[in-house]
Each structure stands twice: as structure tokens, then as C-alpha cells.
Amino acid sequence: MQKCGCMDVDSFPIGFVETPVYEEQVIKLNPGDRLYLYSDGLIESPNSEGKLFHIDSILKLLQELRSESLEQSLEGLLLALEAWCESPNFIDDVTLLAMEVK
């Protein structure tokens, strides 16, 4: 079973400041590896108790969805977020991008 991990990079969002400074990050991906990129709206979505959709929950869910297709894993992640928020309408924009190395 492949491991899920998180690459935590602090930087400015694109277009947020006029002259941002970005640090290059390099990771090695192998065939079958997946990379998920997301906006802050995903991890800053609160439930009815005000608790946020935490990255640990996302990593666990993606590990559970690993046998699904890439598209199905994204759908599963969005469905889990909707269940967490008890609504398909989020308080912030939620953007997800996923890719799989062939």
C-alpha cells in the first residue's frame, strides 16, 4: 500500500501580492503516484461545530480512495466535504486539481 503524505509549503497565492518570492520545491513521483493540489477553501471549511476539515482527515480519506480512479477519488473527497459541512455550498471557494503519473 502506498503512503499518503503532505508537502507543506508556505508561500503567497498567485496574484496575492505584486512581487511575490517563491521557493522551488522538487519531489520525485513514480508511476502510479498521485498529486492533489487544493485551495484553502478545502481545509478551512467548518462543520456545524466550527471545526475545520483537517488535512489529516483528507489524507486518510485519500488513502481509503486509493483503489478508485483519480476522478472518483476527487468526487469522494468533495462528497466527504459536503457531508462535513452538511451542505454542498461552502463558505469559501474550493478548488481541487489532481494528477496521476502513468
Bin the helical content.
Answer: 25-40%
Enumerate the spans where pLDDT stays under 50 for 5 or more consecutive residues. none
* First-residue to last-residue Cα separation: 17 Å
Strand arrangement within the widest β-sheet reads 1-2
Mean pLDDT, to the nearest integer, reads: 88
Strand content range = 5-15%
Main features:
single chain, 102 residues, alpha+beta, two-stranded antiparallel ribbon, globular
Task: Provide an overview of this structure.
With 102 residues, this protein is of the alpha+beta class. It has one domain. It contains three helices and two strands, in the order E-H-H-H-E. The protein has helices at residues 40-43, 55-64, 70-85, and strands at 34-38, 96-100. Strands 1-2 form a two-stranded antiparallel sheet.
Summarize the structure.
With 102 residues, the protein is α+β, with helices and mostly antiparallel strands.
List the helices and strands and how they pair.
Elements: E1 34-38, H1 40-43, H2 55-64, H3 70-85, E2 96-100
Antiparallel strand pairs: 1-2
